[in-house]
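S.,

Sequence below, as promised.
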Amino acid sequence: SVALASVGSAVFPFKGMSLMIFNMFAEGLRGAGLETNQVSYMIGAFFASIVFAVVLGLVISFFFGIDFTPLKNADIAEICSKGGTKMNNMQVATMTAFVIGFMYSVVMLFLPKDFPGYGTINGIGQGFWFMIVLVVLSLMKFDGKRAVNIERCFSDAVNWGIVLAVCAFTSIGMMISSPDVGIQGWLGGILGKVFSDMPFPVFVMVLTLVTIIMTNFFSNTATAGIIGTLVGPFIMQYALDLGINPNAIIPAVVMTASLAFLTMGAGGSSPIYLGLDCMKEDPKWVWKYGPVVMIVEVVTVGLTLTLFSYIL
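The prediction came back faster than expected:
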């Protein structure tokens, strides 16, 4: 679930790290006279995430030794008969609020910039918009009970130790990747030699492999920024020489950089995942099976996006 959520989070190019990397490439594409197209990005990323999910689901039983027989033989009708199958009013309101919160980014994608009040609406931001939705939910009551108890959520439901760990490791990762440290220049020299004169399909596979290795030891945002900066000129050159759609290759960087879970500093969700009781009891588990997930991601995302860069 962590792997699928991480890869799936990069499907939309108008939020978070996806937006940052897409804009980074967009500036270079416009400078080279190439078209920027978020639709091509989303189509390629969507199908790549689906292929990854399907293949991972097919191989997980073999590599992880999971027995799906009980799930296969489960009687869904009997399970549903033992509990409610309809959401109550509070659940409907909460789900509706979540959809409204999520739709902010979607609406902003299609809202014309000359729309009255566009600057104010755009200035709210996705995070603050969710806070507004949360406050509204906290004022709503169902059967005398609030839909959301903000005080309890922030005091009991948030593991502040993990939050602080995320901030600390992310800051360390960003500092390590700073140009002043010299690592970015060193990697640029190495990757420049690695990526030169490669057939395009090989380039994409190597790109995803290098990105997924780096992202699990650096901050994923820092990794995406470094890789995006270094490989941008190569992708644009392939677009000019071969006519491939560079917009469909950008997700290869974003989706792969998002799959960060091996170390605490890899990504925002890494401390939460590695801090689970089951992971603390057997910390070697993630190092034993994690590479399998990484290999599946490299192969599926790399091949799918290579295909879509030719056909879009």
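The longest strand covers residues 141-142.

Coffee later?
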